[in-house]
Amino acid sequence: MTAIGFIGLGNMGGPMALNLVKAGHELTVFDLSKEAVDTLVAAGAKAAATAGDAAKGAEAVVTMLPAGPHVESVYLGKDGLLAQAGKGTLFIDSSTIDVPTARKVIGLAREAGMEMVDAPVSGGVGGAQAGTLTFMVGGEKAAFDQAKPLLDIMGKNVFHAGAAGNGQVAKVCNNMLLGISMIGTSEAFLLAEKLGLDAQTLFDISSTASGQCWSMTSYCPVPGPVPASPANNDYKPGFTAAMMLKDLRLAQEAAQSAHAATPLGAMAASLYAMVEASGQDSIDFSGIIKLLRGEL
Ligand code: NAD
């Protein structure tokens, strides 16, 4: 049994923390949302009054926060995790954030005598609930080895991607591809509809043909073919369009700094920015199909 602090109990962090509790670990949790904390407390976790308090006495701390500024504010400063945790604490940041912030916070953690990895995930809320996430981990091999038993509880595939920040590099590349493929899948279903081909028939054919991709087979943007996809639940997230836009912007920042040509990534970011401009970016990212339908 490990004493674990867990901060950020949202769509992803909530079920991830629950899996650690179910595996018999002792969790102390914190989130700005009382409702999110109450759910974990009902499952057997202890509530902390602040993020720093959740780190006190913890052997490992997991964070699952929205973006880089949230990670900086939770980790740094006199009330932050690095100041409040004991030396030797292992930090696992599973948030999807920009590479420079990940490298900066990991550097500061190591200076303070802690081990830390960036360990963003793929697999969505379904994967978080089922404990089948894919973890992409950056950091020292020793820190990776220490984190792996905990990541194995929350995930099915755990990859060491190399040095600090490389988990975020893998994640940003993966999500740029995901954003592009979701738009492409949506376009294909809309075109089929206009040409008189029903969604289930296109799904049956394309899911076994060369257009097959995760956006279609696991997260289909039209209701029907994949019962668990948010399209069947009025595009309730899931993974919000706002989060996808964040990731696409991270990819564009990274592409600019690396002088990489990513024209489809740029187009995907522009389309999700239009969802944001419509004021409806709290819908699931597969709701981009509504923009293409002219419904946003
Ligand atoms: P979310 O908005 O549902 O959850 C974030 C949680 O962090 C919220 O409960 C919020 O109250 C809490 N929080 C924010 N600031 C805080 C602070 N200062 N102290 C304590 N708690 C704070 O987001 P999510 O969907 O769970 O995503 C979390 C991260 O995981 C993001 O970086 C996202 O890009 C990434 N991600 C999400 C998915 C998905 O399908 N939702 C998939 C893969 C990766």
UniProtKB/TrEMBL annotation:
Q: Which PROSITE patterns match?
A: 3_HYDROXYISOBUT_DH
Listed A to Z, the keywords are: Branched-chain amino acid catabolism, NAD, Oxidoreductase
Q: Which Gene3D superfamilies does this entry report, sorted A to Z?
A: N-(1-d-carboxylethyl)-l-norvaline Dehydrogenase, domain 2, NAD(P)-binding Rossmann-like Domain
Q: Name one GO molecular function term.
A: NAD binding
Q: Where is the active site?
A: 171
Q: Name one GO biological process term.
A: L-valine catabolic process
Give the family this protein belongs to, as stated in its UniProt record. Belongs to the HIBADH-related family.
**Entry-linked PANTHER family:** 3-HYDROXYISOBUTYRATE DEHYDROGENASE, MITOCHONDRIAL, 3-HYDROXYISOBUTYRATE DEHYDROGENASE-RELATED
Q: What is this protein called?
A: 3-hydroxyisobutyrate dehydrogenase
Q: Which organism is it from?
A: Tepidicaulis marinus
